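Incident log, structure service

09:12 report received: a user says their structure output differs between two submissions of the same chain.
09:20 pulled the input from the user's history:
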Amino acid sequence: MKETVLDVLMYLFEHYQSVEFSDSENFETLRDELIAAGFPDEEVAHAFAWLDGLTRSRQLPIIFGPSNALRCYAREEMQRIPTDCRGFLLYLEQLGILPPPARERVIDRLMALTEDIDLERVKWVCLLVLMNEEDADEAFAQVEEMVYYTGDFLH
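09:34 re-ran on a clean worker, output below:
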């Protein structure tokens, strides 16, 4: 079974507290534990680079136009992020779950993945991004419910 970066991140989310894997000082210990759990060293390294990229993206200034502006995707983003996934991000934004700065971090982190992007991966990336956002507890809980819900959504 091929383990991906997102598989490593999902394992971290489900087995550790966010402060444990958000703190780069814990990376060496976590790396050893992940490798002992069977994840390839290369994917573990990519997962920590992905988390580091998430931390760095929070420190960058993001400038937005009017609050009702529609996000236009770049050609590379359109090629990597399928239509249903972009629709899901718009859906979360319209519900007030994913504010524009968090949406930009989600898109940035999706583009940092090497594997194909599908709706399940988008939900997980949204969850991981919202987990690191200030005052996003309610939005995080709503997306977490979507991640673990097994039925169809009516949207």
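09:41 both user submissions now match this output. Likely a transient worker issue. Closing.
09:42 reviewer note: The radius of gyration is 16 Å. The longest helix spans residues 41-58.
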